[in-house]
């Protein structure tokens, strides 16, 4: 429902720069007439007749149309309105239920009494609701069935009324609407003393002689706001009139002018073509000639009878002639059905009852043929008078002007090619519409598109310097101003920015065994996906998930050995292989190996935040013994089997000592590496020791001296103490709070400087 009313609001702003309207706030429903009858009322095959029964223009009715509820209501699935199941001034919502105790229940009543009766229903919460209203003219007309001789019979057979209780059923007679007859209020001595009624037998809303304070009619309440695109629209009436026709304030009257039920009209309602020969109705999307008096080609071609009143059959033939001659460039003209003609009526005015500012040449309000036969009298067809908007029937042998219609004019359909997806390097996006005269508005940055956006004129080339996702948004506006719903297409253009490297045995120059360890690094804006390895650069191993280390066996034979690695990024794009070389020098049989192995530690010793993972790697096959507590390792110390983690609950200095022994018994000298694992024990802005974070010198103030000291440490002029590491590692800031990264660098000095100047706080 929200989307529908947003669309209506946008339509109302069509005249404002940069805003556009969709193709019709409502979609007119079909009349549901499916049979055809000639001028004498004899049924005939529909093909080629041009009758309503052949064209069946409008939204098709759901089957079944009505949903009968257990609370005494019936939901109309075509319009979204809810009607009282008891359709004759209901006293009860269900058989045997509590009475409403409202005056005049189940009887005819004057118009003002009908409005009061609805108020009583709301006070009594008829069928559990207190928002009932007397239907306006368009709402009551929406329930008519042009495929039945008697609408009340159809309605009672489809859920209305309570079976054996005839007083609860839809009555074959006149029902009040909440719409006053305001067609003559601008004439001297005239008022709105009459109100519109609809006959549920004939479906007429006759020339209004129904005085509010003289005639009694039946009453049928309705409620709800339509959530369907085929729901009723407003009648145009915005004023209220009492029972003698004098204007009065609308508040609490229950009149049409107060309720304003239905879809709002666009402003302006009509948009004309160049030359003002045709007009598109922004409410319905229908296309009408501005010449309403049997328009046609300039030459009086056979069968066209331009400018004259015609019989009903001649009217159908005239429209066929218009199509044969491509009148105003179109071949889809038809004689409008009764709902299409009725949709033009403005019940706030008369003579003509057409919306203010309309572009049509009917200045008095003629009566026009529709293509809909009156099934109660098949020799008659439905007609609409644009004098006051009344709907009635006329004998088909009579003569009336013809006002053809086409459409509804739908916005052109825009498509984007190629299909949205992932592309490599660049992609060229082409937009096309089903109507070549349409304008296409487009953006590529994901910003909302409007008629202020650039107009598409040539294919769009998307060629970024880094992997980028483009959200292309677009819509078209047809030559008649019909606006397409905004569409979008997402294109990810992948630029292969993957970089990678590899070391063999931590960069050792040679190895005495073909079994080596590869250290790998790779990064890409799209992420790193897989890796493959090869000893010859041609035959690669099967793809495997990226990892930072990998055991590998070199090819046999001494000498330089090259290992190749091929990475793919997260989108599956391959990166050119990278390689590393090491010399394999296996000891000759009988030759003593006297060279001690060399062990490398990664990462470099230093200060780290929270934890650090340490890797030891020898330049040849060897056993590595190590300790982490500063004691000197021996052959009895733990044997290194894989990377290990140094973590602590408080800031701790780990002295890792290690040495390697190769299979020949050669042992390297003990080496050591010191790792300080920093654990932040700060709470709020003060550490457990009471020292402010960033306060290097411990004077409980972060000032310029602290920033200068941090700068000296960052550029290598001085080394930090452990206390300084605890106090000074404040960068980066995460959500305004220090997030130590294990080192004091220029970022820490800059944040301390900002803190001393009052630019940041934590």
The assigned structural class equals alpha+beta
Domain count? 6
- Give the averaged pLDDT, no decimals: 88
Mind summarizing the main beta sheet? 5 strands, mixed
Q: What's the total number of strands?
A: 40
Termini Cα gap = 48 Å
Helix content: 10-25%
Beta-strand content estimate: 25-35%
Summarize this entry quickly.
With 762 residues, this protein is of the alpha+beta class. It has 6 domains: 61-264, no CATH class; 267-395, no CATH class; 421-494, Immunoglobulin-like, CATH 2.60.40; 499-584, Immunoglobulins (Immunoglobulin-like), CATH 2.60.40.10; 599-678, Immunoglobulins (Immunoglobulin-like); 681-762, Dockerin domain (Type 1 dockerin domain).
Describe the structure.
The protein has 762 residues and is an alpha+beta fold. It has six domains: 204 residues, no CATH class; 129 residues, no CATH class; 74 residues, Immunoglobulin-like, CATH 2.60.40; 86 residues, Immunoglobulin-like; 80 residues, Immunoglobulins (Immunoglobulin-like); 82 residues, Type 1 dockerin domain (Orthogonal Bundle). It contains eleven helices and 40 strands. The strands form 13 sheets. Strands 25-31-30-27-28 form a five-stranded mixed beta sheet, with no helix packed on it. Helix 9 runs antiparallel to helix 11. It is elongated. The N terminus is likely disordered.
Using brief descriptors, characterize the structure shown:
alpha+beta; five-stranded mixed beta sheet; Immunoglobulin-like; 6 domains; 762 residues; 11 helices
């Amino acid at each position: 429902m929200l989307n529908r009313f947003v669309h209506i609001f946008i339509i109302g702003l069509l005249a404002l720069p940069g805003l556009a309207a969709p193709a019709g706030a409502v979609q007119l429903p079909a009349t549901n007439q499916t049979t055809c009858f000639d001028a004498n009322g004899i049924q005939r095959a529909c093909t080629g007749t041009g009758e309503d029964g052949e064209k069946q223009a409008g939204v098709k009715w759901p089957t079944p149309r009505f949903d009968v509820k257990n609370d005494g209501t019936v939901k109309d699935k075509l319009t979204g309105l809810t009607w009282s199941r008891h359709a004759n001034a209901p006293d009860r919502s269900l058989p045997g239920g509590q009475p409403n105790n409202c005056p005049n229940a189940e009887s005819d009543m004057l118009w003002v009494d009908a409005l009061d009766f609805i108020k009583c229903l709301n006070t009594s919460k008829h069928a559990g609701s207190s928002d009932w209203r007397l239907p306006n003219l368009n709402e009551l007309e929406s329930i008519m069935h042009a495929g039945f001789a008697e609408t009340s019979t159809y309605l009672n057979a489809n859920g209305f009324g309570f079976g054996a209780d005839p007083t609860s059923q839809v009555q074959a007679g006149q029902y009040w609407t909440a719409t006053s007859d305001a067609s003559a209020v601008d004439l001297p001595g005239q008022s709105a003393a009459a109100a519109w009624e609809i006959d549920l037998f004939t479906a007429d809303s006759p020339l209004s002689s129904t005085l509010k304070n003289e005639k009694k009619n039946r009453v049928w309440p309705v409620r709800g706001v339509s959530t369907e695109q085929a729901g009723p629209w407003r009648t145009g009436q915005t004023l209220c009139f009492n029972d003698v026709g004098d204007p009065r304030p609308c508040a609490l009257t229950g009149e049409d002018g107060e309720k304003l039920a239905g879809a709002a009209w666009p402003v302006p309602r009509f948009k004309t073509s160049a030359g003002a020969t045709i007009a598109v109705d922004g409410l319905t999307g229908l296309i009408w000639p501005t010449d309403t008096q049997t328009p046609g080609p300039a030459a009086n071609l056979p069968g066209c009878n331009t400018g004259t009143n015609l019989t009903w059959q001649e009217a159908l033939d005239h429209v066929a002639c218009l199509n044969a001659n491509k009148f105003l460039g179109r071949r889809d003209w038809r004689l409008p059905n009764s709902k299409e003609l009725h949709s033009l009526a403005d019940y706030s005015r008369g003579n003509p009852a057409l919306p203010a500012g309309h572009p049509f040449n009917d200045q008095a309000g003629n009566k026009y043929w529709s293509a809909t036969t009156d099934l109660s009298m098949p020799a008659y067809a439905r007609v609409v008078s644009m004098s006051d908007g009344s709907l009635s029937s006329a004998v088909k042998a009579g003569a009336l002007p013809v006002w053809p219609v086409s459409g509804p004019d739908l916005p052109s359909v825009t498509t984007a090619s190629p299909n949205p997806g992932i592309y490599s390097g660049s992609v060229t996006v082409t937009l096309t519409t089903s109507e070549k005269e349409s304008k296409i508005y487009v953006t590529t940055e994901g910003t909302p598109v409007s008629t202020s956006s650039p107009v598409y004129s040539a294919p769009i080339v998307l060629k970024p310097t880094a992997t980028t996702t483009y959200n292309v948004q677009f819509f078209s506006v047809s030559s008649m101003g019909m606006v397409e719903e905004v569409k979008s297409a997402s294109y990810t253009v992948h630029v292969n920015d993957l970089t990678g490297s590899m070391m063999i045995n931590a960069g050792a120059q040679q190895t005495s065994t073909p079994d080596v360890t590869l250290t790998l690094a790779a990064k890409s804006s799209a992420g790193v996906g897989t890796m493959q390895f090869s000893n010859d650069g041609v035959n690669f191993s099967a793809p495997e998930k990226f990892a930072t280390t990998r055991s590998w066996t070199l090819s046999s034979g001494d000498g330089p050995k090259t290992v190749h690695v091929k990475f793919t990024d997260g989108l599956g794009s391959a990166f050119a292989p990278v390689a590393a070389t090491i010399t394999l020098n296996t000891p000759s049989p009988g030759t003593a190996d006297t060279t001690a192995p060399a062990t490398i530690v990664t990462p470099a010793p230093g200060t780290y935040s929270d934890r650090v993972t340490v890797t030891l790697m020898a330049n040849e096959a060897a056993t590595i013994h190590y300790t982490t507590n500063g004691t000197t390792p021996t052959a009895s110390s733990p044997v290194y089997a894989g990377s290990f983690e140094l973590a602590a609950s408080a800031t701790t200095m780990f002295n890792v000592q290690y040495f390697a022994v190769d299979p020949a018994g050669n042992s390297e000298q003990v080496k050591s590496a010191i790792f300080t694992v920093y654990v932040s024990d700060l709470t709020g802005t003060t550490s457990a020791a009471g020292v402010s974070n960033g306060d290097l010198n411990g004077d409980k103030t972060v000032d310029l001296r602290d920033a200068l000291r941090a700068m000296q440490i960052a550029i290598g002029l001085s080394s930090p103490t452990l206390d300084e590491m605890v106090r000074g590692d404040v960068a980066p800031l995460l959500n305004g709070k220090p997030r130590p990264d294990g080192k004091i660098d220029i970022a820490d000095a800059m944040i301390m400087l900002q803190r001393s100047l009052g630019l940041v706080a934590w």
